[in-house]
Amino acid sequence: MTKINLGDDNTLKTILRLIIPAMAGQLVAVLYGIVDRIFVGNVQGYGQIALVGLGVCIPITTLISSFAYLVALGASPLFSISLGQKREDNAKRILSNALLLELILSAVTLIIFYAVLTPMLYAFGASETSFSYAFDYMIYYLTGVPFILLGLCFNQFLTAQGESFKALLSTAVSCIVNIILDPIFLYVLPLGIKGAAIATVISWVIYFLLGGYFLLKKTTIKISFGNYKWSIMAKILKLGLSPFVILATDSLVIILLNTILQQTGGENGDFYIECQTIITAFFSLITGPLLGISSGSQPILGYLFGARDIPKLKKAFNQILLCGIIFTSVCFGLSFLVSKPFASLFVLLSKQQGGDQVIEAASKFILVYMYGAIPLAFQYVCVDALTGMGQAKYSIWLSLNRKIVLLLPLTIILPYASKDSTSAFYAEPISDLVAGIISFVAYLIITPRIFKKQLTNEETSLI
């Protein structure tokens, strides 16, 4: 497949060539966690309680991935803007500095999470019954942290220079490996829940190797070393803070939700966490590809912003937003048909009592979550568009508004105010609706000033 021309006059064609592989890649990445949950949940005899343990681990693994995006989604817009300015020398420096940052974060993350693993699991919702399953999964999963962080960074830089098909290919191959290895390690060997973790780590190693190969051999801007500057790293981290907040607080919300459900659910605490694990798995099938639309389209916005082609940039933004609205609207309609069959995938074969109740409760609250899906398209597209244009000071506050101002407080307040644990599940759609409106209005107000400043600015170098 040919490299994408980010300056093409047919912006819709360029956008689709960027976001379709990015959406597919995000969907495949989401399937990593979902496949693990389905196979673990269906282990006979202990599948459902193991699924509870895995439900405690999933937000932790997502939090780990968010550190990759702190760098990758901070550096890639700067990279694309540099390409739009025809400054390949700057693009090379941004790539080398980003990879060094990712290596440092990998080491720090690995040390910290190993050191606090046991108290962290209990604090984040593990019960005495589910702790051993959560611990067995995480102790093996953590060995893959360097491959996860660097692999995600590699793929983002492939997309940033128009090589989205190569990014999709490395993601798809690694996911297929995970799907093949999961049942072998869980059912044939059998290794229990740690087998699911080992399968996931092996697939991440393959993801890392493929992404590294493409970025070394098959791209215009290749992996290089040297030209390290703290000023460049600081700009990368500043711009990456917004997507990091989005992803990290997603994890923190689920961690908080697990804790609230365990504390307020009494003897049903594990039951509610099992339902939550299924609900968030379904919702990730929407938010993952939606992130593919919003972040996958950043290269064209960054390129056009760097090239100061504001009319084409406005046209591209409208098309990206329309893609997000269409996608979330289709998902909203389909959710009424597939929520119950989806929930049944996780408990169908485990042969434990309570499976039917899990399916009913999970499918009910899947639909509750989906009422905020369409407004969420406005939130994702507007925030990531500002990030793609290098406007971290705006995107970070809009991210914080949804998560810190709305979602986290509502997750705490609703169950205690109503004295009903399940009220916590309503925090997501409420915050998505309010935040989507605020972000869209803010984007319309902010961007005219940004565009005017860019057109009159004589400075051409970002770093």
Summarize the structure in words.
The protein is globular. The longest helix is centred in the N-terminal third of the chain and has 38 residues, at 47-84. The chain has 16 helices and no strands. It has one domain (11-456). The mean pLDDT is 88. Helix 2 (47-84) runs parallel beside helix 6. The chain is an all-alpha fold and 463 residues long.
State the helical fraction. over 70%
Q: What's the overall average pLDDT, rounded?
A: 88
Q: Give the number of DSSP strands.
A: 0
Q: Kindly give the count of domains.
A: 1
Separation of termini? 32 Å
Question: Structural class, judged by helices and strands?
Answer: mainly alpha
Radius of gyration: 21 Å
Query: What composes the largest sheet?
Result: none
Overall geometric form: globular
Question: Which segments are poorly predicted (pLDDT under 50) over 5 or more consecutive residues?
Answer: none
| Number of helical regions | 16
* SSE pattern: HHHHHHHHHHHHHHHH
Task: Tell me briefly what this model is.
The protein is mainly alpha-helical and 463 residues long. It is built from 16 helices and no strands.
SSE map:
Layout: H1 11-41, H2 47-84, H3 88-115, H4 117-123, H5 131-141, H6 145-160, H7 164-188, H8 193-217, H9 230-264, H10 269-296, H11 298-306, H12 310-344, H13 355-370, H14 373-388, H15 392-418, H16 427-456
Throw out a few tags for this protein.
0% strand; mainly alpha; 16 helices; globular
